[in-house]
Predict the 3D structure of the following.
Amino acid sequence: MFVRIARFEGDPSNVDESISRVRSMMDEGSTPPGLEDALRSMMLVDRQSGAGLGLTFFDTQDAMRRGDEALNEMTPPADMTGRRTSVEMYEVAIDREWQ
């Protein structure tokens, strides 16, 4: 499994609005082109600093590369989620759920 991680910096007072806007975009219906192979998406936020992470998981490195291209094309405006500061891609070496 592979994960693309986008880091954002923003205004802490806009965190709830950012969450709401991203959730609305994700709930609009069909999967955006290039993200058909995405397995899972997560948004992590730090309410104190306004920082956030967008994690998108893929089965293969090729699917992650296609997803990266698609996500780079649809990067939201800075007033929506903050400013994207970096994008990193990793192979998931361990994935364990504790029960």
Remarks:
- The two ends are 21 Å apart (CA to CA).
